[in-house]
Write a structure and sequence with these properties.
Blueprint (H helix, E strand, L loop, with lengths): L7 E5 L16 H15 L3 E7 L8 E5 L2 E6 L16 H15 L5 E5 H15 L2 E5 L4 H7 L7 H14 L2 E4 L2 H11 L5 E3 L14 H8 L6 E6 L8 H10 L8 E6 L9 H13 L6 E5 L6 H7 L2 E4 L8 H8 L4 E4 L4 H4 L6 E4 L4 H12 L2 H18 L2 H27 L1
Parallel strand pairs: 1-2, 1-5, 2-4, 5-6, 6-7, 7-8, 9-10, 9-12, 10-11, 12-13, 13-14
Antiparallel strand pairs: 3-4
Helix pairs in contact: 1-15, 2-3, 3-5, 7-10, 8-13, 11-14
The chain binds uridine-5'-diphosphate.
Amino acid sequence: MNATTEKRIALISVHGDPAVEIGKEEAGGQNVYVRQVGEALAQLGWQVDMFTRKVSEAQDTIVQHNQNCRTIRFKAGPLEFVPRDNLFTYLPEFVENLLKFQKENGIRYQLVHTNYWHSSWVGMQLKTIQKSKQVHTYHSLGAVKYNTIEKIPLVASQRLAVEKEVLETAERIVATSPQEQQHMRSLVSTKGNIDIIPCGTDIRRFGSVERTAARTELGINPEDKVVLYVGRFDPRKGIETLVRAVRESKLYGSKNLKLIIGGGSTPGNSDGIERDRIEGIIQELGMSDFTSLPGRLSQEILPTYYAAADVCVVPSHYEPFGLVAIEAMASGTPVVASDVGGLQFTVVDEETGLLAPPQNVIAFAKAIDRILSNPEWRDQLGKAGRKRVIENFSWDGVAHQLSELYTQLLQQTAKEPVLATK
Ligand code: UDP
């Protein structure tokens, strides 16, 4: 293989560090996506370098995940956590450091896959400076997000402009669901090339634990009815809807009802405000006795939690994809989710779970009750969910699709100088 068609890719994820613990502060789906895609591509023979921002002196600059896959951290602005809405100003330093890294290591990335809008800006600079080809995944669209929140941040106009530019100029945009593609077209631009390649999950890990064994491990009784939430503490995640829905459940007052809200970090971090608010509601509604908040759940223990649950609830106000839904489905657990975004793609209403209008407490309560009151149907939904994930959302499958796309783009690059000399 010559240098021009070398299987080398830079995954850029300025704020979503693929090497950190997931489930805290702003670390969630994007971090998992970049890490899993990176590792799966390495398995397919790609040299994968994942670039992110260093947030403390103590962090290693390079984390080697396996022989072909590593995370590389650059200083960009202060060596501390900076909320993503304040990161834009530090991006030129990130680009400078990336160029310096290339020079020092004798590498030039002909192909970059950028994640989230900051990284798309970095990718667009590399395109201008050295003609790198760009693939971009949004993970979240400003045009959609700003419709679902009350306080629009100062950086909004900048973000919307960058998101439009990348759609129109990147070689390929990866939409993770048909719903996301539709939003790009209706809210961002009619120009640009979009492919749909979904997010994936580890179908070997999720689904590897039986319900009974999982309950024994977690100390949950066989007759308990367990409602599970997994995710970051962020108002957009709609945890309040879930808490209030469980208060409205027909089973409320039964000693078998259990609510587990997994995720979040230690007090003092930015997600602590939402965690405190949710804990306040739980207390106010008198639900503390049967609700547990175990904090961040490691990727190792997560399959056990999903397997132990009767139903996993994803009550987001908006969700571009929603990895938690497919993780639960892969584990054979039905999902009750908001009828929005990528959840409309992953969760098939009445087949792998139920969809309910976002923020509708009564609709969520009814959906949860329908599943909790019918264990046979619960199992049927769970089985269909696992089948759907195996067929459509395994990381291996997703990585193959990305690998094909990258190869196609690199082959075009390889042909370009030849065409130019004709
Ligand atoms: N997650 C985790 N531990 C936690 C909470 C969440 O590992 O305590 C992981 C979860 O398994 C999923 C990701 O964080 O892979 C969340 O992704 P999702 O797309 O559902 O939401 P996002 O964080 O991107 O909004």
